[in-house]
């Protein structure tokens, strides 16, 4: 099934400029997307203030579990589960990946854009899977009783993945890294409250998101941390979330807080040359850099109402040009 789109908000960027490699997203059709947004807003208004801190792994797994459909939400029966889809950047067409279970969440493309890592909770536990485009087949990457809420590709076929481990009545996070054949995983580090991570294209470092102390009832605070895999040393990189490396590793693009909301920013891997990737009037989340490094897809809203849908935008990495790529339905977690 191929689904149409309707475009708007075109500012100085032609679709003909974009590379043809598909963008993977989780996508909701328009009516379920609208009902889901209304339900989320009702739940937000009814939710009591947070009473205290919650362990990162616990919070992350619960949020992803609800998104994937691994757990019910507060409505009991209303569970609006999205679909893993591929977006054609030149046309905006949305094509569901029939081999993937409903609710699948994309994570990363292989270098050749033929394999896609994604999350699924269809068997009751959140695990990492790999979709093969050529064979239209899916295989499991992780297994066992512990959830695995994030993963990424590294150079030459390496895979890194995050595991939330139950031990002695508590939980901690452990990050694994495989060899170039995707086998022989080893623990890179553990118990550092990693909420998500990205492996540098040259395999030298790991960039992860660490939660900072946050007062009860306030929006969670996170920072980016760069871990040198050769020395084990860490370098705090400042406030932010949802980082992604450019294809050759010369830039890190991420979403950072500002007085006007979340905005796309970029910096060099050593933390230098920090700059905005332009800036609009909306929250800018979940950046995904194109395979040629020239463009950034991201999630934002066209309007500012709480129930407005989050759609897919694209702009040049230098900040010029901006347009909606898909505004039919709602999107989440683009991967390019």
Helix run count: 2
How far is the N terminus from the C terminus? 21 Å
Strand-and-helix sequence, N→C? EHHEEEEEEEEEEEEEEEEEEEEEEE
Give the helix proportion (percent range): under 10%
Strand sequence of the main sheet, in spatial order?
A: 3-2-1-24
Rg over CA atoms, rounded to whole Å, is 19 Å
Please provide a written account of the structure.
The chain is mainly beta and 336 residues long. It has one domain: TolB, C-terminal domain (Neuraminidase). Helix content is 9%, strand content 42%. The strands form 6 sheets. A 4-stranded antiparallel sheet has the order 3-2-1-24. A 4-stranded antiparallel sheet has the order 4-5-6-7, with no helix packed on it. A hairpin with a 2-residue loop joins β9 and β10. The radius of gyration is 19 Å and the shape is globular. The two termini are 21 Å apart. About 4% of the residues have low confidence.
